[in-house]
């Protein structure tokens, strides 16, 4: 068991931040939040733990905590839910931000495919993936939805590393059997589907109860997939539905990302009216689908996505820099339709591995979109981007009942923030008279990973 006493900050509802002061939070050994007790005087904590039968030598060893082990937080510290990165290319870790200004298909050909091709070597994969996962945990990313490379063995390695380091993750082998160099594409649909099934089986054997890991079907996008491959993946998605998992496997792809990408998709699939019709035809748009970007989706497409229940991974950094659409996505239009939205670093199209940067850039991009839409699509607020980075992302990844907030019964995926650690180079600046809301605002707007002192996934300390 673990216990904290101090401030908790989370966002159960879009647009709202809940600040719980002087709160006792207890985490059971199974990683679940056992108690959240607001307004407890510090001096009363041992008494309360005793009254709840949580201290001392219980027969049930699981349910005991030594009062001396309670972490009492300072005024500048608070516990918040861990960040959920809904769109991340693990094999692009070493090329973040490279190829600035290139349009998507040129960026893939010149920078990305040669780089990802190196993951044919599992030793290389282990070296890069170990660093990637460590670095994202360092940034407070407790859940990531990862695209692997096209290689089955390297993708297995990525899943192994997430489990070893304790990161919650959706992991998928990238499916791509055309429009990529011979040195970096699946030979044909049959091979791609076989490798997919093998990775899925590997992940199920590593983590049979899906405690931390899930497989996510990962057609890169329609341009690099033959119709046969898209159909095969849709069939796997349909077969994965069961009584225990009525929504089936998660699916992720890039969607309405850039004008160059959309023109090429139309040329390859002229029979479809738009990308919603295309991906829906192959059974790839379900309530478990995570669509990255959606910068250019029309109102009509958004209405249909809303009905299908798909989620959006909003990647504000890459959208405005490399590979993406050079366009701010219409996030307010997604939210107005009740479409689940999370934030993605889109590392390495996105140059930053920080979800704080993603939140800040989401604010900036939404302001640009507000101006562009002549005020129709209102800019986002700090409570809204924080919600997207935590609970919104959890919903997009199908984890809304497990993580995203600090509520009793949820698993303890969390960060311990110190908004003003006395350390050289730290940019945040908290003053005596600051309210807790201001302390939080300063962290979101000026903080970085040096403000994230501890990171927990399922109650396990994964960064300190
Ligand atoms: N479309 C993409 N967009 C992106 O940002 N990164 C990628 O690797 C990719 N592949 C297709």
TrEMBL record:
Pathway where this protein functions: Purine metabolism; guanine degradation; xanthine from guanine: step 1/1
Any coiled-coil regions, as ranges: none
Keywords from the named record: Hydrolase, Metal-binding, Zinc
Annotated cofactor note: Binds 1 zinc ion per subunit.
Cofactor(s) demanded: Zn(2+)
Domain called Amidohydrolase-related: residue spans: 78-462
Catalytic activity: guanine + H2O + H(+) = xanthine + NH4(+)
A Pfam family reported for this protein in Swiss-Prot or TrEMBL: Amidohydro_1
Membrane-spanning segments: none
Matching Gene3D superfamilies: Metal-dependent hydrolases, Urease, subunit C, domain 1
UniProt EC number: 3.5.4.3
Described purpose of this protein according to its UniProt entry: Catalyzes the hydrolytic deamination of guanine, producing xanthine and ammonia.
Protein family (similarity comment): Belongs to the metallo-dependent hydrolases superfamily. ATZ/TRZ family.
PANTHER family in UniProt: GUANINE DEAMINASE (PTHR11271:SF49)
NCBIfam families xref list: guan_deamin
Record protein name field: Guanine deaminase
